[in-house]
């Protein structure tokens, strides 16, 4: 068997393993999925009219739904990959990785299984949260089929980038609790981005924090694609952030994984 065929076979096996773990222990996934759903309902039905009026659109809840959904979708990905960090940490600390090192399997298949499994779960979570958004009134009437395809591609790219970062966080964490805490910025950063209010509506000293981070250009790009509006330079910035985080997370995870066990 060629090295490529071996890598594909072993990576597929590890992918099935991670998906089975997610199916057998759904509580973590459900808890992480409930957070964006609750935030969506909270901001739409409790704060929607006030937030829309504060943004100059009048007390129009439907307009605020259109604004807030893209940020909630990216927050969903951030929450999902926290579970990946926990799963990787468990593998690293419970001895299964040491067992895998002694087996005749492709060395990178363990990480590939975690990453692909996480991306699949992220996409499924986004679809579920998106369905909730549509049920409460979100509509994307101005987006073309090409823009919908681009939006899906962006979501997948963000999921890949954040997953590699989460894998690295899980590998350097001494236990599952530490992994969950280390991955917390992936949930917090969207809260201080343009997910809920425009950057120019924030205090002047806070605007650079919201603007110069990976989630804001990704949210603005997704918002433009879903609503059929201009995205400016945000598209290129979002892609650059995703590629940089993917490369960083990949080499970080690979370096830690290839270290000799202590």
TrEMBL record:
Residues 27-260 form the ABC transmembrane type-2 domain. This is Transport permease protein. Keywords: Antibiotic resistance, Cell membrane, Membrane, Transmembrane, Transmembrane helix, Transport. Pfam families: ABC2_membrane (PF01061). It comes from the Bacteria. It is found in: Cell membrane; Membrane. Belongs to the ABC-2 integral membrane protein family. Coiled coil: none annotated. Its main location: membrane. InterPro entries: ABC2_TM (IPR013525), ABC2_TM_bact-type (IPR047817), ABC_2_transport (IPR000412), Nod_factor_ABC_transporter (IPR051784). It is a multi-pass membrane protein. The chain crosses the membrane at residues 25-47, 67-89, 110-136, 148-172, 184-206, 235-253. The keyword Metal-binding does not apply.
